[in-house]
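Technical appendix A lists one of the benchmark inputs used to test multi-chain prediction within the project. The record comprises three sequence entries:
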Amino acid sequence: MAIIERSITTTEAFSVATPSTSLGALKRPVSSTGWKSWLFTVDHKKLGIMYSAAALFFFIVGGLEAVLIRLQLAAPNGKVLNADLYNQMFTMHATTMVFLFAMPMAGAFANYFLPLQIGARDVAFPRLNALSLWLLVVGGLVLNASWFLGGAADGGWFMYAPNSGPIFSPSHGVDFWVLGLQVAGIASLIGSINLIVTVLNMRAPGMSFMKMPVFTWMILVVQFLLVFSLPVITVALVLLMFQRSYGATFFDVSQGADPLLWQHLFWIFGHPEVYVLILPAFGIISEVLPTFARKPLFGYPFVVFSGASIGLVGFGVWAHHMFASGLGPVSVAVFSIATMAIAIPTGVKIFNWLLTMWGGKIWYTSAMKFAIGLVVLFTIGGLSGVTHAVAPSDTQQTDTYYIVAHFHYVLFGGMVFGLFSGFYFWWPKVFGKMLNEKLGSWNFWLMVIGMNLTFGPMHILGLQGQPRRMYVWTEARAGEGFFNLGFWNLVASIGSFILAFGVLMFLINVIHTARKGKQAPADPWDARTLEWLTTNPPKPHNFDRIPVVHHLDEFFHRKYESDPVTHNMRQVATGEELVRAEEAAADAHIHLPSPSYWPLVLAVGVGILGMGIIYGAPIMVVGGAVVLLASYGWALEPSTAEDIDFASPSDGGHTKEIATHG
Amino acid sequence: MAETATHADQAHHSSTGLSNNKLAMWLFLGSECLLFGGLISTYMLYRGRVITGPRPNAIFDIPFTSVSSFVLLMSSLTMVLAVTSAQRKDDSRTNLWLTVTALLGATFIGGQVYEFTTFYREGLGFTTSLFGSSFYSLTGFHGVHVSLGIILLLSLVGMIKKNKITGNKAEVVELIGLYWHFVDIVWIVIFTLVYLIPS
Amino acid sequence: MSTTAEHHEHGLSDSGYVKIALILAAITALEVSTYYVDFGPLFMPALIVMMIVKFVMVVSYFMHLKFDNKLFSFLFYVGLGLALFVYFAALATFKFFIA
């Protein structure tokens, strides 16, 4: 499909439509408003918004699952969930949060802002971009359909073998889980190839790699991690699917199988995945901190290269998730050292952020608060991470709440805070309105308090030995005094409600802003990067003219110049003036990609195909037929004649197009 | 690319001067290395683990597989000839070589079907042993890739005939060629590791 | 984006490709001969070396990496290198190479 994808198809200036027949029968969708304009869009901005809407929905689903878990554990002999349902709950909580919230939300930011940050009008493959979104939605639906079709997966998010096999997990839950992840994985793989090519090839003139914003850099690293780690989980999922659906023996110990094979395959993917989750947040706050400290990012090349080296070393540390599995002393020592090594580039970043703020005129907006929150909370999680790298202490902590505490500090305190920082920072860019700062402050503080109350006590619970997946505890075995498990479980549960309330504040803020939010000025934060060199929200074609880049932080350097005498930066233009100037000098003819039915049809076909694996061959045949039809429709859909992409309408491009398709 | 750089509309320039499609294809192939790597490793780990059913050395028919491997190897040559024909804008030659490539690929798949049925009759089912599961998964996955390649090649022939390719024709041929050669190099590895080196 | 891509590509001529294919065929014949002739201790290393040679030849010539932009080689070989690294390491933890 990628084969005939064109990055740009021709239309008259600013319009989005190319009504040419596809497959003889269907005309290309042409709406630029209404629901059709969303369903069939290939605009990276609309796709980005839909990504974030889907991710936010799953964030709420996963969050409610978490609250149920905490309700069950709040008091001894919990009755909220039975053991089986509890297993499903924590499995789906983790799976949903990782694959359906965190990755798509990072994908939403990447989709929306990466082309804007590099001065492009869209991604390299707009239709594939739409396909990624719809596959993700299909994958999420398949995954969660299991709730209504016989129970969800219950093997924990890493679904260890042989527990995931047909004997120990007889319901279809794991099958749905496998298929849902497989489909979501394909979505991410396509998305990552798309974004890498976009960064490599679609940068504005003058934007060399070392002039790219850090967010773009981190997204690039993440996409490389995805491209090379997703196939590994694909293999693992295929093996598991073959075992469950077709009787293969891969994890069947009675046949001499090694269940550790699953662990290796899962974590070879799973550890890079951890960086897939955190690096986008690092990228976001590397934009937010300099903006609100009003200083350039301290040590830009160090931040970039430490991010890249985190990515690279991230491929060599997976077995630290398996220290308790009997790998043998040599393997444990090697992976232990490699894991400690990763603390170095991470530490470099922390110091870069601190030194960015050092001596700056800090402006404590909600975005800035969340960014600082990330630096603090991630550091706590990072430090407990170092204790896992030490194999002997890790053996003690394995499968206890200490682990739960650690990864929630890095993922919630790190990643989620970074994403929220991004919400507040970029909301005016996307929707043209400012999120309310007062509600934002409530949002932030409730989340900080809630998160520390929820996950802080888990360190104590874990070191006291509370197992990670225990569904019920009894007063008789809860211990005494300060280390009483009951007390800390209750604190954690109360914390989770405060946390949920904090998130609710954000949703209230969103609704409040949509109804009576204040209109955003062109450059509300005195920002630094190219995405602000256009209107809020950006026009369909992003930039009225493609910017030519001379500096890192190009937008800032267009606003400020160094005074030749004092060497202080002085303002020479406002952001608003710059945006106006761009509008005045707009390109006459701008080619935009055209909407298409096929990404949506193809994604639905893949979903049906997957259902066929569970419910039998006839459904598979239907799904396969839809996939085939969509693929041919896609391949035959006239993008444009090849010259058109390069010829501007003024020298005959447009007439030529009519000649080709007319 | 110099040609594009002169245009006023900067939206169409490519920062590296390389084709988007080709970059994407190479990334995809790099990613596929990890996919087949995982399947090959699974096979290597499990090939000796047979409790019931035949062992690898008892069942492989090296002369037969050598012939089908050779057929697939030669299909890479015909593929590359299709690419050079396409670069010379010689549509009929391109189509000829593409068709020959697809036929060679189909021969290989035919051989694989024959091999699978023979093995099955000799007692090696998909569920018989770890060796069986991992062998059929690995070679089956490869077979699916070849089959997909055949579909791509034949579709390409049809599209060239009907002049339905709106993009750069030579590049489309080249991209499908890259995929085809990749499937071939995977078989080069499988042929040695699975068939020639006994467990 | 790619109309001119062919102009600065220097692939081989058709006869050059045929020569490559002949070499590949010869190596394959040599590989198959190990099934009939005893290579002694050289058996395994010889097969591995021949496999690598064939692999690299197809990638470099048929797939043009030798003539193409280095970025393509980078993207492919990073994937290949990572695959080799992670799977060798994983198999090593199973003591695959000791037994």
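Chain A has one domain: 41-520. Confidence is low (pLDDT under 50) at residues 1-25, 640-662 of chain A. Comparable benchmark entries are summarised in Table A2.
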